[in-house]
Amino acid sequence: MKIGSNFPAQTPDGPLAEKWTNHKNSINLVNPANKRLIDVIVVGTGLAGGSAAATLAELGYNVKAFCFQDSPRRAHSIAAQGGINAAKNYQGDGDSTYRLFYDTVKGGDYRSREANVYRLAEVSANIIDQCVAQGVPFARDYGGLLDNRSFGGVLVSRTFYAKGQTGQQLLLGAYSAMNRQIGRGKIKMYNRHEMMDLVLVDGKARGIIARNLVTGEIERHSAHAVVIASGGYGNVFFLSTNAMGSNVSASWKIHKKGAWFANPCYTQIHPTCIPVSGDHQSKLTLMSESLRNDGRIWVPKKKEDVEAIRAGKLRPTEIAEEDRDYYLERRYPAFGNLVPRDVASRAAKERCDAGYGVNATGEAVYLDFASAIERYGKEQAHVRGLDENDKQLVNKLGKEVVKSKYGNLFQMYEKIVDENPYETPMMIYPAVHYTMGGVWVDYDLMSTIPGCFVTGEANFSDHGANRLGASALMQGLADGYFVLPYTIGNYLSNDIRTGKIPTDTPEFDEAEKAVRDQIDRLMNNKGSKPVDYFHKRLGKVMWDKVGMARNEKGLKEAIEEIKEIREDFWKNVSIPGSADEFNEELAKAGRVADFLELGELFAKDALHREESCGGHFREEYQTEEGEALRRPEFQYVAAWEYKGEPAEAELHKEELNYENIEVKERSYK
Predict the structure, then answer these.
(1) What are the residues facing 370 on neighbouring strands?
(2) What is the pLDDT of residue 669?
């Protein structure tokens, strides 16, 4: 592993609060007449890609948008439940742009770039106005004003929400904006198309090779710039809350063409997921963090109660209040159940590892709404002048309030688990959810490949080592609506005389040949094992040795085991059917091949980072109380350059300097 030199993030000079404004005032622009001469490819149509495509087309650029789903509406952004952050201070509880910036940097354990995070906080308020104008049905209070709730890691209420379907409603807003541009002919939409490779001409991103997933046809598409907005890589663990089709391939293809991959080990384990039920499960289901506003997390204090529950002899509702351990409230009194996700996840793991897990596998804790139902019920009874001591009435009124706030989430839980969460506590356990690492980008969101921009979860830029809840939607829409449309113009201003990029060139020939060669290799492999066999093996290694807790021995073992799985994959994978038809197994094989390379780099990055921070927890580096122990010598972004094999990847360090925030031990006590 060689250590490369620092790489400039192109962060503007000047005071933090003025950097973005001054940058917008000084960057080059493309006038409307010239925008008509410029083509932009956008890969991915979730919140980051959809908002970028719609905005760039509205500005006048010619946009080609690609998604592997049958419609942009099926992007994984639709699964986001709890809300979107914005520093509007509607509650009057002390919120501000600086407070959102501070919470985000602290929540990320001081491992994110200061200037990018402040810009994110600064433009957050604009996102809400944009989405309201699009008709997004945010929840409102009794007076008709937009309502807010709180999320983990903060002491204010800044999260705007639409019940438990915020991602869906925001995506429909972006999709409607896209549809307007599709109707105008400014966006050409390529559904059921997957990006197979990036094409470089004179070192610049000038197009992609795509595969039509319905016909199997290989296509060439050129542009003056390429935007990657293809989401995260949580499915490297096989079981995650991500949609089953979510993958790393677009990001990994550009990594192999020269884009550095930053902090791959920074992966978020979400504390509020439905526990694993068996070996044949294909994905996990998220229960929104918003539930932690009103739900209290606990396990029994007594081992005999735990054993009785597992044996079906005792119900959780039969355990007395004094026999319950509300461990987050006990350990973190200032934040209680609303500690950040990494803290809550490790605390649940600690209790379950100690033998207090409440399901058959011993890997579940309770999320209980009984107190909230009683509190809301009494409040409603008081407001209506009814008897606050009538338990049956209070229970009924309380359930109505909880249903209005979280009804679809409760319904989803009951359908999956077959238990009524209004009557008995939910069971939850941590699961892989989001990836903070991703392609390295500068302040303009451009990768180390000129003309190749990366937005949303696919880049690394804003969340550090842990993402605060309700910040993913914020980052995706900030990048797509309010950052990239400015910064891409700074690059494209040099292309107004370039003319159309031809596709009948040696560069496109070479890229297409490489794609066809890999497809032929997979189709002609004549192995005996299906793709999922290898993906599950990879996922087990990743979860067991590169999951919630990591150590040097396990990481070194994981690197060797992943290499063995990769070698076995290329010898023994079997792909049925043919390449010139709809073949989901072939598409899956290409994605798993990329995961098998990423997995090794992921473990290598975790091994090299000899500290604990946020979602990266090395067992060798923890405080006496079991909290993450940061080390100042690792206060940098680890950006990896592809050199042929993950083992040969070259490390480049971007030092993180904090001039506007004090770096101190993160405490939520």
Answers:
(1) none
(2) 86
Residue 42 dihedral angles phi and psi, to the nearest 5°: -120, 120
Integer Cα distance of 633 and 589 in angstroms: 39
At a CB cut-off of 8 Å and minimum separation 6, what does 456 contact? 44, 46, 47, 48, 49, 229, 231, 472, 475, 476, 479, 480
Sign of CA dihedral 175, 181, 183, 187: negative
Q: Listing from the earlier edge strand, what are the strands of the sheet with 636-641?
A: 438-439, 261-262, 636-641, 650-655
231-269 pLDDT, tens digit each: 999 999 999 999 999 999 999 999 999 999 999 999 999
Distance CA 458, CA 248 (A): 8
The DSSP element (H or E) to which 544 belongs, if any, is: helix 531-546
> Exposed, middle or buried: residue 567 (CB in 10 Å: 0-12, 13-18, 19+)?
exposed
CA distances from 304 to 310, 314, 357, 429, 669 (A): 10, 10, 12, 21, 30
224 residue type, one letter = H
- DSSP classification of residue 613: B
Which two tokens mark 630? 């940061």
Contact indicator for 449, 200 with CB cutoff of 8 Å? yes
pLDDT (mean) for 568-572: 97
Closest-CA residue to 652 (of 58, 210, 255):
255
User: With the CA atoms of 560, 563, 567 and 570 taken in that order, what torsion angle do they form, in degrees rounded to the nearest 10?
Assistant: 160
Rounded-to-integer distance, Cα 484 and Cα 466, Å: 23
* Angle, helix 114-134 to helix 97-107, in steps of 10 degrees: 120
- Find, among 492, 457, 471, the residue nearest to 56 by Cα: 492
CA distance 214 to 212: 6
CA distance 615 to 634: 15
Confidence of residue 302 (pLDDT cuts 50, 70, 90): very high
For 409, the token pair is 């989430």
The CA distances from residue 443 to 6, 204, 295, 462, 512, in Å, are 15, 18, 39, 11, 32
**Block residue for tokens 């009103």:** 294
Alpha-carbon 330 to chain mean position = 29
Residue 176's SS3 state is helix
- pLDDT score of 284 more than 50: yes
Q: Return the SS3 of 138.
A: coil
- Domains delineated in the chain: 28-267+433-493 (3.50.50.60), 271-430 (3.90.700.10), 511-631 (1.20.58.100)
640: phi then psi, degrees, rounded to nearest 5: -105, 130
End-to-end CA distance of the chain: 39
H or E segment at 510?
helix 506-523
* Confidence grade of residue 573 (pLDDT, cut at 50, 70, 90): very high
**Pick from 359, 50, 56, 15: nearest CA to 186:** 56
Judged on CB neighbours under 10 Å (0-12, 13-18, 19+), 648 is exposed
Integer Rg of the chain from CA: 25
pLDDT tens for 83-136 read 999 999 999 999 999 999 999 999 999 999 999 999 999 999 999 999 999 999
Burial class (CB in 10 A: 0-12, 13-18, 19+), 186: buried
| Whether the predicted pLDDT of 5 surpasses 80 | no
Assess whether pLDDT exceeds 60 at residue 516.
yes
Per-residue pLDDT band for 1 (boundaries 50, 70, 90) equals very low
In the block, tokens 């392609």 appear at 439
Q: Active-site residue numbers?
A: 341
pTM: 0.96
Q: How far is CA 272 from CA 29, 31, 66, 169, 432, in A?
A: 45, 48, 32, 22, 10
